[in-house]
Amino acid sequence: MSAKKKSMDDVATSIDEAIRSRHSVRSFLDRPVPRKSIEEILDVARYAPSGTNTQPWQVYVLAGEVKKALSADILADFEANPEREEREFEYYPTDWFEPYLGRRRACGWGLYGSLGIERGQTERMHEQRARNYQFFDAPIGLIITIERRLNIGSWLDLGMFMQNIMLAARGRGLHTCPQAAFANYHSIVRRHLPVPDEEIIVCGMAIGYRNARAPENIWRTDRDPVDGFTRWLGF
Ligand SMILES: Cc1cc2nc3c(=O)[nH]c(=O)nc-3n(C[C@H](O)[C@H](O)[C@H](O)COP(=O)(O)O)c2cc1C
Prior knowledge:
By secondary structure, the chain is α+β, with helices and mostly antiparallel strands. The protein has a domain at about 25-90 and about 130-220: NADH Oxidase, CATH 3.40.109. The chain is built from eight helices and four strands, in the order H-H-E-H-H-H-E-H-E-H-E-H. It has helices at about 5-20, 35-45, 65-80, 100-115, 120-130, 150-170, 185-190, 215-220, and strands at about 60, 140-145, 175-180, 200-210. A four-stranded antiparallel beta sheet has the order 1-2-4-3. It is globular and about 60 Å long. Bound molecules: flavin mononucleotide. The site of flavin mononucleotide has 12 residues, from strand 3.
């Protein structure tokens, strides 16, 4: 095997490993992440494709006191009104249906189950949901926005950009959790960050070093096999 071929095989293996080893981490170590690492991650992520190269992403990187103050304000509101719905966009269908409903339930109960939370333990579920707003103790939190005048196609681009962030993080030993939960609190986010009215707050993201012993990080979601979503034609 030529040196070149071998190195391309290595690249494929590394990319596959980065993709497969990414999972949503919901407990992070108290270990700082240097600003330089986040700069490198964003520098790689910006190579995401986008329709006509529009590059429709905006990112706010939060650490230290800014992150803490945002978390404290959202948590206070979450305690006062845990069912708040102030999204600027609909992520999910209003009426759930199969197979998505079943998968959603499996995800929720899987997470709670990993923590020993049983049906009816609403207090503990509430506490777990609240952890979102502390970025699950990650040292870095991102808030990702998009200009509201852009159309649905640009949201595809934003998703690819976000995946690039998550994979580039893996390449540096870091883990992530994308967090649409922050979209529910866009008015509070706006109080803390200089987000112009023209931008929609789409998603948050926790970034840091994984606490590998936390039960919620040991649990994994599963996936439908390829045959479940693929039709092969013309082979
Ligand atoms: C755009 C987006 C938003 C998400 N928002 C949240 C969130 O607010 N809180 C959370 O705990 N997980 C959130 N997740 C994580 C999903 O639950 C997770 O990706 C899914 O269950 C698959 O598990 P995995 O990421 O561990 O592979 C989000 C994922 C995506 C892609």
